[in-house]
Amino acid sequence: MKLLFWKKKPVEDQQQLKEAYFTASQAQLIRSRFKNNRTAMIAGWALIIMILMGFFAPFLSPYSPDIAGRDKEYENGPPQFPKFWDENGFSPRPFLYTTERERSIKTNFRWVLTENREKRRYLELWVDGWEYSFIDIDWDLPGEMFDFELKALTFSTHLFGMDKGGIHLFGTDGTGKDIFSRTLHAIYTSLAVGTLGVLISFVLALIIGGVAGYFGGWIDSVLQMITDAIRTVPPIPLFMALAAFMPDTWSAETRFFFIASILGLIGWPTLARRIRTHLLTERSQEYVLAAELCGASSSHIIRKHLLPSFTSYIIVDLMITFPYVVRSETALSFIGLGLTDPVNSLGSLMQNVSKADVLLNYQWYFIPVLFFIAFVLAFVFVGDGLRDAADPYSQSKK
User: Fold this and answer.
1) For residue 216, what is the domain's CATH number?
2) Does residue 396 lie in a domain region?
3) Domain assignment of residue 268, yes or no
4) pLDDT digits (tens, 9 = 90+) for 326-342
5) Measuring CA to CA, how many Å separate 86 from each of 118, 123, 160, 349?
6) What percent of the chain clears pLDDT 70, i.e. is strictly above it?
7) How confident is the model at residue 292 (pLDDT cuts 50, 70, 90)?
8) 238 with 286, same domain?
9) pLDDT tens digits, residue range 183-241?
10) pLDDT average, residue stretch 298-308
């Protein structure tokens, strides 16, 4: 009897799994298939870590990323890694050596940093430093009625620091600004630009694509003419004209809002066309006719019946679109048409690597480039994983 019981149990488990599969909701099926994609899961965890690093950048940064937090005694300094032991013995507290600057004839009298291995500086946690606000908005748009300023959640506590001097995990640039702090704030800026740009394009794509696909006719023709006109606008000449239009008196936050808005306003046509194509094929289905016979309005049918049937694909499209918005901002900032100092974006940091002597003398300038590559690749792999998981009834299911 025991043998028969143990032989039947795997069959019963398989039947239960089949029942759970066929009775699962669309969200459960997508989540289950996404978990089976190891590459997408690893990219998802990496993306979550980078998002948290960007959001808590002020807390994780030991120094201010702008010129106010620069280290005058450690300009163009290499990365510093805390140690636990050296030839002088073991220390339970991580430490660094005291650095000294001097001019050397071997480097054509350029400043050279040397370490004094007899003097130690110790790492400390939960130190009090520069003041920051997690909510810091200062918009200075044309016209007094559009000016807006808000500061909230202000703190001065940071995760780590040194008892004497500074610590620069990613080194410093030519002005002495900490590259580690600038990189974390650049990730947050890229996230904010991408989120705002994708949100604007998402709303426009839903409205324009939904109206064009549901009503069709001359409304569809007019909206498609507008969509094609937006798609033919070359982005580089457009931003060159906008860069000349933006006054120098605009604050960094205002430039950020303006650039993100423009990226959103020119990034909606692709998603709008996909929504239109889907609605053109779905509007003649029986459930749409039933809703019309029941007296449902057009907006109700689009919002409650048509768009939900396309929700998973819209989410996937947004995840895939996000890195392209970030890449566009980075490219524009790199050529000087986007965000510039004092805004810390990945594009503005990558401007430093265009100098001739960086590859030979200051290789740590490329660290933000590595974060940019990892950031974009994580979004691409997560988007690909969601795209594969969005079709839970495909034959490729394992």
Assistant:
1) 1.10.3720.10
2) no
3) yes
4) 888 777 777 777 777 67
5) 11, 16, 22, 34
6) 84
7) confident
8) yes
9) 999 898 888 888 888 888 888 888 888 888 888 888 888 998 988 888 888 877 887 78
10) 78
Question: Among 93, 92, 115, which Cα is nearest to 102's?
Answer: 115
Residue-number span of the structural domain to which 102 is assigned: 80-167
Before 323, cis peptide (omega within 30)?
A: no
Please name the residues in contact with 223: beta carbons below 8 A apart, sequence gap of 6 or more.
208, 211, 212, 276
C-alpha distances in angstroms, 297 versus 154, 289, 294? Answer: 47, 12, 9
Domain count, the chain: 2
Instruction: Label residues 212-228 b or e (16+ Cβ within 10 Å = b).
Output: bbbeeeeebeebbeebe
Residue located via tokens 């819209």: 314
Residues contacting 121, CB < 8 A, separation 6+: 95, 96, 97, 98, 162, 163, 164, 165
Buried b (16+ CB within 10 A) or exposed e, 139-163: bbeeeeeeeeeeeeeeeeebebbbe
The 10 Å CB-count burial string (b at 16+, else e) for 53-78 is bbbebbebbbbbbbeebbbeebbbbb
Q: What is the pLDDT of residue 145?
A: 57
Same domain for 264 and 379? yes
Quote the pLDDT of residue 60.
92
Among the residue ranges 64-68, 107-111, 161-165, the one predicted with the least confidence is 107-111
Cα–Cα distance between 66 and 70 in angstroms, integer? 7
Local confidence band at 48 (pLDDT 50, 70, 90 cut-offs): very high
Is the Cβ–Cβ distance between 301 and 288 less than 8 Å?
A: yes
d(CA 84, CA 93): 7
